[in-house]
Amino acid sequence: MKSQRPKILLLLIALVMIIVAARTVVMNSETVQDAIIERALARQLAAAATSYGGDNMEVVFCGVGSPMGQGGAQSCIAVFAGDKFFIVDTGARSADQIARLGLPMQRLDGVLLTHFHSDHIADLGEVHLASWVRGRDAKLPVYGGPGVGQVVDGFNLSYGQDYQYRTGHHGEDLVPSKNAGLVAREIAPDSVIYDKDGLQISAITVAHAPIEPAYAYRFDYAGRSVLISGDTIKDDNLIAAAQNVDVLIHEVLQPDMVNAVIGSLNDVGQRNLARLLHDTLDYHTTPVEAAQAANQADADLLVFYHYAPVPRNALMRRMFLRGVDDVRDDGVLLATEGTHISLPTGSTAIHHN
């Protein structure tokens, strides 16, 4: 038997070499390359054809991160209600996630800005482009508090030549200039800002000083409801507006992790950034406070997003739940990019993946 081992080993080596050579030949074949690309595109486009809304309310997370270059996409949540489609905030890299998720951007009815921090508005221009070139049939409304006009004017000025270039290259039939650009819709605090075809959207002021106003948004459709906190400390006005909501989506800051980062930054001499992070500790909501708010609002499902810092592994995710079980032992979800929540009408069910 021992005498056979070298022969078997040689045969195995020869077989591996043949497989490698064959793979190299196949991969260098233009016909094979074209077939692989076509199949990959077919799968991607089929996934992008997913229907959202229908008779249901659905939420898709396009970004759950926070500022300062932590990777992934910053704050961005898509909400579908029947045939309506809104996006709440457009943080950096959220347009990339929107494309990856295959959201039907030609259907986009508007963008709601909770406030004007960079990590909530950075990709507004790219979201405009993604919806315009896919066939959006009007200028893109952008809802926000006082100052939204300045934000919109700035993006239109920065992207104005881009609008002209694309229409000039592709033509009015494909990318009509009448649909290019953003339109500001300044909204009043604590008011219903949209009420059409059964969808009601309300703006709720929340505490994020010195920003005044900062908004949360509540969506009500066909007996189902979702509230998105935006950036805030634990806030009584939010809790009152969130009463009996199906899904409360709440920002969270994990203070133990933030303090660890502050200590490390001080150790390496980055004191300016350390002080800046220290200032965020009384500027956001801890996971335990978010759980308390959900309980006080009698929310069915609490969803964490806009993490500080972003949890990158199971240990960090576990730390975000530290103490939460003592307050709320069920109905807590940690959202990631791509998390999809569905609220069927005529039901109390909440589905997520």
Summarize the structure.
By secondary structure, this protein is an alpha/beta fold.
Model description:
By secondary structure, the protein is α/β, with parallel strands linked by helices. 39% of the residues lie in helices and 25% in strands. It has helices spanning 4-27, 30-48, 94-101, 118-121, 124-132, 148-170, 236-241, 255-267, 271-279, 287-297, 314-320, 324-327; strands at 57-63, 76-81, 84-88, 110-112, 140-144, 182-186, 191-196, 199-208, 211-221, 224-228, 247-253, 301-308, 332-334, 340-343, 351-352. 38% of the residues are buried. The model has no long low-confidence stretch (mean pLDDT 93).
Oligomeric state of the chains present here: single chain
* Contiguous helical run count: 12
**How much strand content do the residues show?**
15-25%
What is the succession of H and E elements?
HHEEEHEHHEHEEEEEHEHHHEHHEEE
Distance between the termini: 54 Å
Strand count, sense and barrel status of the largest sheet are: 8 strands, mixed
Mean pLDDT: 93
How much helix is in the residues? 25-40%
Rg from alpha-carbon coordinates: 24 Å
Q: Strand order across the biggest sheet?
A: 6-5-4-3-2-1-14-15
Poorly predicted runs? none
Question: What overall form do the CA principal axes indicate?
Answer: globular
Structural class: alpha/beta
How many strands?
Answer: 15
Write the layout of secondary structure elements.
Blueprint lengths: L3 H24 L2 H19 L8 E7 L12 E6 L2 E5 L5 H8 L8 E3 L5 H4 L2 H9 L7 E5 L3 H23 L11 E5 L4 E6 L2 E10 L2 E11 L2 E5 L7 H6 L5 E7 L1 H13 L3 H9 L7 H11 L3 E8 L5 H7 L3 H4 L4 E3 L5 E4 L7 E2 L1
